[in-house]
Write the structure tokens for this entry.
Amino acid sequence: MAKMEVKTSLLDNMIGVGDMVLLEPLNEETVINNLKKRFDHNEIYTYIGSVVISVNPYRSLPIYSPEKVEDYRNRNFYELSPHIFALSDEAYRSLRDQDKDQCILITGESGAGKTEASKLVMSYVAAVCGKGAEVNQVKEQLLQSNPVLEAFGNAKTVRNDNSSRFGKYMDIEFDFKGDPLGGVISNYLLEKSRVVKQPRGERNFHVFYQLLSGASEELLNKLKLERDFSRYNYLSLDSAKVNGVDDAANFRTVRNAMQIVGFMDHEVESVLEVVAAVLKLGNIEFKPESRVNGLDESKIKDKNELKEICELTGIDQSVLERAFSFRTVEAKQEKVSTTLNVAQAYYARDALAKNLYSRLFSWLVNRINESIKAQTKVRKKVMGVLDIYGFEIFEDNSFEQFIINYCNEKLQQIFIELTLKEEQEEYIREDIEWTHIEYFNNAIICDLIENNTNGILAMLDEECLRPGTVTDETFLEKLNQVCATHQHFESRMSKCSRFLNDTSLPHSCFRIQHYAGKVLYQVEGFVDKNNDLLYRDLSQAMWKAGHALIKSLFPEGNPAKINLKRPPTAGSQFKASVATLMKNLQTKNPNYIRCIKPNDKKAARIFNEGLVCHQVRYLGLLENVRVRRAGYAFRQAYEPCLERYKMLCKQTWPHWKGPARAGVEVLFNELEIPVEEYSFGRSKIFIRNPRTLFKLEDLRKQRLEDLATLIQKIYRGWKCRTHFLLMRKSQIVIAAWYRRYAQQKRYQQIKSSTLVIQSYIRGWKARKILRELKHQKRCEEAATTIAAYWHGTQVRREYRKFFRANAGKKIYEFTLQRIVQKYFLEMKNKVPSLSPIDKNWPSRPYLFLDSTHKELKRIFHLWRCKKYRDQFTDQQKLIYEEKLEASELFKDKKALYPSSVGQPFQGPYLEINKNPKYKKLKDAIEEKIIIAEVVNKINRANGKSTSRIFLLTNNNLLLADQKSGQIKSEVPLVDVTKVSMSSQNDGFFAVHLKEGSEAASKGDFLFSSDHLIEMATKLYRTTLSQTRQKLNIEISDEFLVQFRQDKVCVKFIQGNQKNGSVPTCKRKNNRLLEVAVP
Ligand SMILES: Nc1ncnc2c1ncn2[C@@H]1O[C@H](COP(=O)(O)OP(=O)(O)O)[C@@H](O)[C@H]1O
Ligand SMILES: [Mg+2]
């Protein structure tokens, strides 16, 4: 799939401003704030026009990935957010496509990220340029030259753990297609003093540590070295280990890199031998020895070290020993030898070490060049990368700082020149009127230093070459005379009185106002360092070495080529190389990377504004911006400009047909941007003020929002409509399906209902028919049955007699008869006696005969009773009648009754007729006597009894005296109202008389008789037959008896046995007569 080309711009999503020409207002503070803001958001790169400012992040950021390389590849410089890759890409494409040689100038102070930047540029170019086996090898060699040079030329300093201690300029050569062919490296001014002495907290060059840590024992033995750093005077101990750096591993990397770059094994060996020799040189020590002629002389303390060095380098020990003791000066074919004192000997030793190392370094660079140089002679395109030490301001600044700062002045010079030139060229190219730009030109400072007649470097050389005593002080005096009037030179002793009282300016110093700030230089050591003297005896000794490499490093030691002319001074050498470099750079299209160090602590995320401010100042960034926007702050080609802002005007939106420039003109007219704010170049629009651009940007942003809303609106409308249509379509489908389903369901319901109804109706009809049919059938059956019955009846009627059915009944009746017959016959035999009191009766044989049996028993009993009665005479009948009457009256009422049953009622017990005694009595009574018996009459007054004859006749009751037979009382039966007696076993009874009757005057009678029952019965019967009235007989244990006027209560109580069985009667009081019954 083709990647969609998205038009972007640096202006999109800017943090602060990506290009500081757009800063408004423009001053130091805004510049720093902008850098800080971007730094805080991990935007370490910022532009000033085409210059890239890089702030060291001190941590790895994810912005160098292969994807990022792809992003920046072939994109315009201002299209994406600022990046070192954008600059690299611009430079590379300009080189490849426009045939312009390029140089990339990376400046900044130590630790600001220059070397890293140079590596990033190289790796970017390596990533985007052509590919292929050969090309890759070249790339690899170019890239691998870095670790080699860094091992020998970099060291840990307080500012940077991997500080380049040399300046490096590398030309990368390309063929016409843009494929790399090779390269050339130039090195500048290795800080060789570091070999013999390092400031506090710093280290010697990496290679020494790498060798001692990483070499095998075998190699160490061969080099006569020991692994212990502390064995070597030249290695500072306080910071021999660097955090996060593995020297041993790096040693392997370096050796590997050397192999890739093309070093032969013996060459590597030689190089390491020289390194070892340098290390061991530091261990040679001297002691003073006085000679007879009074001159000081020194002697090597311990010759063992010397011996080993000589073995290692193949130098005759005596030659070297002598070279450390004597100095030969040749003048006018005359050789003069002088002895060296101890200080001189040490100086000579250190000078040798420094020279040996720095020459080795130069040799290494040349050797690398040899390997990486282009193999063809075709015309090459060149991209130069300059990674040179930045401006240095230390507390003690010496010759080195002076030289370095001079170099930076020159770079600034060229920067100004080239920037201005480029600006001017662009104006001419674009046909825009050039306006003069005010800016600070540091040419005057460069002149102060490099002027051939009275420049500082010239003065120094003059001093060094001058016969007579030359010291740093004489040099300063000279400066004071010559440069005093220069406005950038300051010295206490100068003729100019300005600084006479400036205590910040010591006497042994001079101060230069560099473009980046004032720097105070200690004059001490200037002369020596400029001379860079190595005694000829030493160089000759070196030349005599058996070691081929060492020998080649000291060609001036060859006596055949003896050259009495002084070698060029360090200053003039440097000046010359800087001049060459400048010339070289001027022929190329410059690209600037200006590195800034955000803090002194090598720490991530810390932005020290003071420190940055200082760097911004001496890098001249503000100047840079001013120059850049002196005329027009912003320029842009017409096409991207129109592309970016075309939405701001109806005519140009969405498409402008016609040349872009015309479109931009229309656009700017439409937007009513004042004409003085912009100019039309040939291919670019020039905008004077950032304000205008920001206004455009604001309008664009607003318009984009509107457009976004519009797009959103249309899109939403479209989306809603599509959605709606889809919904509608779906709804129809669903409705159709639903209707179908509903109809189906309804139909099925109707169908099933119909079926139900139908089935009911059918059922009903069927049942009706069935009923009719059944009825019909039943009628038929009934008729048949009736007929059958009828016929049956007829037949039966006719034939009943013959039917067996009657037999049952007959049998039944017969059986029954038989049973009854048998029963009766049996009963005849079983009949009990004829005594009416016989209770026996045979048991019942059949249940159904129960009533019959009982009835039979009753009848039989009645029958035998009749039979019994029939035997009686009339008299007997009477007796029984009376007995029956007594039974009815007293049975179960009177306890005396049962004893009376067996006694025959005799009536007249006293045979008055026969007893003469009672002749008179008999005569007195005319009527028939029913009862004549003796009774006890109870005296009502005391309860005592007297015997009386009790007589009952048909009409009267008579009482007569027993002895005399004289009638005592006579009571007609009609006057007897009641007889009372107890329920007990006694014979007492009371005869109550009718009140008012004659008999009643004496009161009721109270008697006691053994024949009470008989007497009471006869009294009752007689009364009934005579008076047709039933005599009232009261049976009660307590009754009232009328005694004359009184009523006395007769009460029967339970008496005791001691009186025998005769009841006793006792009058208790007027009212009570108690009868005790035993
Ligand atoms: N772009 C970067 N990304 C991450 N770290 C960096 C970057 N630039 C520099 N550094 C860090 O800063 C240190 C010093 O950088 P270096 O390029 O050696 O400084 P200089 O050459 O200016 O003295 C590096 O070792 C590295 O740790
Ligand atoms: Mg560096």
